[in-house]
Amino acid sequence: MKLDSLPQVVRLAIEAAQNKKAAGITLLDLSGLGAFTDYFIVCTGFSTPQVHAVCEEVEEQLARVGRAPGHREGFRAAEWVLLDFGDFIVHVFSEQARRYYDLERLWRSAPKFELPDDPGSAPVNALPDVSAGGVRSG
Questions:
Q1: Mean per-residue pLDDT of the chain
Q2: Domains of the chain as residue ranges with CATH
Q3: How far apart are CA 7 and CA 88, in angstroms?
């Protein structure tokens, strides 16, 4: 899988998080696991205002292409905000909550794609193109 092959809305959500300086942006590909969604986007905000800004930017960018979350949870507390878009879910954590809940460990069987914090940077660990016979690593 290549980053360019991801659905446009997933790429937009990632770019929105990058634009608001979210850290540790990670994509978990759940599509082959028979899960309730295809992707998790997991990232960290370092303050309540930053967590809110990341969420608002994701929602604003996706609204421009006609998408809104079907469910939004945790915004007020800003420890773990969940934006459920159906085919993908954005999780924006505080540092402490991300370490505590550790979604990457819970979903360790899912291929993991660590993304740069800055838009336009090369991915930290690109998933091999499985259509060309590559093997996913996770």
A1: 87
A2: 3-114 (3.30.460.10)
A3: 10
